[in-house]
Amino acid sequence: MFFGSVEKPPRLSEFELEVPEKLIAEHPVEKRDECRLMVLNREEQTIEHKQFSDIADYFKKGDVLVMNNTRVYPARLYAYKDKSEAKVEVFLLRELSGDLWEAMVKPARKVRIGNKLIFGDGVECDVIDNTVSGGRVLRFEYSVPDLHEFIEKVGHSPLPPYIDREPIPADKKNYQTVYASERGSVAAPTAGTHFSKTLLNKLEKKGVKLAYVTLHIGLGTFRPIMVEDLTRHQMDSEYFNIPTETADIINNAKKKKRRVICVGTSTIRTLETVVTSGFKVTPRKGWTDKFVYPPYDFKMCDAIITNFHQPQSTLMMLVAAFAKKDFALKAYKEAIKKKYRFYSYGDAMIIV
User: Fold this and answer.
1) 33, 170, 184, 349: which could join 53 in a potential S-S bond, CB 3.0 to 4.6 Å?
2) Percent of the chain clearing pLDDT 70 (strictly above)
3) What would the 3-class secondary structure string for the chain be?
4) Is the CATH number of domain 76-154 2.40.10.240?
């Protein structure tokens, strides 16, 4: 039990940091596990510089590695409005039910309720409603056998807004983990993209157990925090699923006092959403809007693997909560000094 004054959350402005534009990675490294790896030791307050393929050195037999197996679908499509030459960008956010989808459109001011958007190959949709966040609700009509197959074929990878280039075919593979299986994200769980199948096999041979959760990441992951008081920020809701098998693996590890190592902020938020008293994970599916910021008492996570995120973002807040704010900011400043690559296609860190 804690006695004394309660630590107050830091203010948004305390996380202000300027990342040089040249350090924002536009493309991944050639081989997934050859990016740089910063190693933060919380107990010793040390920082080491390694390669991601060295990460196996920081695992022990019996550790559990938990990963988000969501699959990014190519959510950015292009259509023509009402049989005209007016081209419209359609960014599919989520499938609502049947043939109804929520989407963002550009230019939004020219796409109104009643408009028809034509994609080609017998696929079109009607704009039937507006959303509170400025998006549109679309009802699809199509003659192709499967709408999802059409989207996979003609859609473009939904690259983050800070990657200032057009998507290329290679993004469909690069902006995806090697273990992605559950379609539903419009943003990749990027910490997981550094794992190759070879590296995962190496960890398994070492006696590390692999476990998977699902959290479908939405555009809200890129939405900036607009309030100085972090307690007033509201996260977007995202769908998650924790299978019974995964819950059993994690709970057994905790019972044996083994470490649970989480890949990415989405994985951590998922586990922290369902943890119960007694520090057990409950198998569950549903929606979460959990926002983790300092100070926070992590129930499930003993170490985390993550990327270098945008300053003042919700993702950076979670990292700062785990590593403690001053140590996290020190690491970010070190990364800038050492010219680490930042954001989705950038380098990684492990915090132990």
Assistant:
1) 33
2) 98
3) CCCCCCCCCCEHHHHCCCCCHHHECCCCCCCHHHCEEEEEECCCCEEEEEEHHHHHHHCCCCCEEEEECEEECCCEEEEEECCCCCEEEEEEEEEEECCEEEEEEECHHHCCCCCEEEEECCEEEEEEEECCCCCEEEEEEECCCCHHHHHHHHCECCCCCCCCCCCCCCHHHHCCCCCCCEEEECCCCHHHHHCCHHHHHHHHHCCCEEEEEEECCCHHHHCCCCCCEHHHCCCCCEEEEECHHHHHHHHHHHHCCCCEEEECHHHHHHHHHHEECCCEECCEEEEECCCCCCCCCCCCCCEEEEECCCCCCHHHHHHHHHHCHHHHHHHHHHHHHCCCCECCCCCEEEEC
4) yes
